[in-house]
Amino acid sequence: MAEPEVRRGDYAFEKELHARLRTLSGPAPEGLARWTPRLIANLALVTGVLVIAATLLPNRFFDPTFTEVSVVIGTLGIWRFGWWFNHWIRSETYARRRWPKMRLEADRLWLSGWRPRHLHIQMTTYFEEPAITRLVIGSILTQVRQERIPTTLWIGTGAAYDEQVIRDFVEVHGADLDMDLVFLRQNQPGKRMAIGLIVRGIARYLTHPDDLVIFMDGDAAFGPGVLRKSLSMFGADPELQALTTNEDVVCFGPGWMQSWLSLRFAQRRLAMQSHALSNKVLTLTGRMSVFRAKHIMDEGFVRTIEADYLDHWLWGRFRFLSGDDKSTWYYLLTKGAKMIYVPDAMVYTVEVVKGSGMERMVQNFRRWSGNMLRNGARAIALGPRKVGPFIWWCLIDQRLAMWTMMVSPVLAILTLATDPYYMANVILWLAASRVVLCLVLWRYARQPDLWWPLILYGNQIINAAVKIFMLFHLSKQRWANRGNQTSGEALGGVAMVKSGVAKFQMTTALVTFLTGVAILAGLLPSPF
After folding, report:
1. What are the start-end ranges of the E strands in 54-136?
2. At 261, phi and psi to the nearest 5?
3. Which of 116, 124, 274, 469 yields a CA-CA distance of 20 to 30 A from 32?
4. pLDDT bucket at 2, cuts 50 / 70 / 90
5. Confidence at residue 368, expressed as pLDDT on a 0 to 100 scale
6. Axis-axis angle for helices 452-471, 255-276 (nearest 10)
7. Residue (of 466, 468, 467, 475) closest to 313 by Cα position
8. Per mean pLDDT, which range of 300-309, 386-395, 476-485 is the poorest?
9. Where in 161-211 does DSSP place strands (E)?
10. Phi-psi bin for 447: left (phi > 0), alpha (psi -120 to 50), beta?
11. Which domain holds residue 221?
């Protein structure tokens, strides 16, 4: 595998990175202070345009010609918005009622002097920009020094390049710490093998089952107090087995990608708080999650990371390329483990986008959606008793949502030949409903962004389309972040036949979906 091009020392980039992170991690305006006069004026303008459009456009929703279409869209809207509203109520319940008590108990324990016996931090890095590496390692050293926890920092690398950057930084800034630095050079490609080597190293170390192990990425920097806020939860709750933290992002790339990623993290905050009310989460995010060491010492856990696989009737047995965070989550799910979300522990991801932002977004969707679909089916198979009724239904809903998301645009297009005004009504409904959704999502953002309603709908449509494609191509995997790895691409006659069968299945499913929607909406005669 060819080594990627890297910069040996871009000080302008490093200066800009630290400046943007200081702004992002600084005090955020609260309440109405977040709404500048310009934002208020722009929101008023958008609202005014929507109201004028609703007044001037002829209302076709109640036209007898489209009664069945409107009933389908309306019923679907009530279902989806009702489910989303349920998540919001659960999220606020977790944030306002359950979480404050959990935080108070954990803080009391920490102030009393409790510390984990030993902390292991495992991190993988692959030809990372030196400025990002120094930022990440610096955030670790600062908090290890503040909290005075005996720590071992395990770094999985693919070459001497990253090791030298880290070693030089630690020798200068961390010589006084009670911290061991261990490098493990992977001898097989892929992040999973790098993590597996580290985890096996931790298991051979003098590790106690109640030691704590942090899994983190090489581009994720700790925000203020992350160690105190996250580790203390394990001392306060002996039943807790794993947790994941809040995230935000610094994006170097197209401006719309910063807005898109900020939107996704706002959605993540709402959803994670809702899920955590059930003492489970839907992923133990690789950017930053913490585990009790007893799981790390389990051979089944290690093998799940190193060689997780899926048996598929068409694709046969294939190993997972990425999605180690979904694999660790699934393993703990099978054990009925308690998992929570820590909303006040913030980790900052640095995204450097080179080339096409749209291509990068689609690649991310392919990776995220593929990981979700590959793990979701087997998690659903565990059943609601094992997983918990709410989380189990969330997993089912993930698979339904990719189809329900496409119903409104499909119906709008199908009615275009009959009456263009109906499509205009649907577009107006979609615009107004996304503004309403964003009024809630802005509560989970550092600052409102008026591009979010447009980005939200585009995000939903593209994500649904990618999920539908990946549903029939589960073995096809690509990860641009680590040497542009690929897996499952068609090579040879048998693979080409399998790919052709998958495309036939997908085409059949899409035709069935379109036909069913059209019949349900009364646009095609029912065969029954």
Report:
1. 119-124
2. -65, -40
3. 274
4. very low
5. 82
6. 70
7. 475
8. 476-485
9. 179-185
10. beta
11. 115-364+373-387
DSSP 50-68: HHHHHHHS---TT-GGGHH
Please give the single-letter amino acid code of residue 327.
Answer: S
Amino acid at 519: I
Closest CA to 374 of 422, 450, 308: 308
Asked, for residue 338, whether it belongs to a domain, the answer is yes
Task: From 383, 331, 365, 353, select the one nearest 466 (Cα to Cα).
Answer: 365
In a domain? residue 501: no
Number of domains in the chain: 1
Output the six-digit token pair for 40.
Answer: 């208020």
Task: Determine, yes or no, domain membership for 39.
Answer: no
pLDDT, tens digit (0-9, with 9 covering 90-100), for 253-299: 898 999 999 999 999 999 999 999 999 999 998 889 999 999 988 89
Domain CATH number, residue 299:
3.90.550.10
C-alpha distances out from residue 431 to 27, 80, 405, 461, Å? 32, 16, 14, 13
What are the phi and psi torsion angles at 26 (to 5°)?
A: -75, 175
**Whole-model pTM above 0.85?**
yes
**Has residue 327 been placed in a domain?**
yes
CB of 241 closer than 8 Å to CB of 295: yes
Q: How far is CA 440 from CA 51, 398, 411, 435, 445, in A?
A: 20, 21, 27, 9, 10
H/E segment holding residue 172: helix 160-173
Nearest alpha carbon to residue 139 among 284, 347, 350, 446: 347
Contacts of 268 (CB under 8 A, 6+ apart): 247
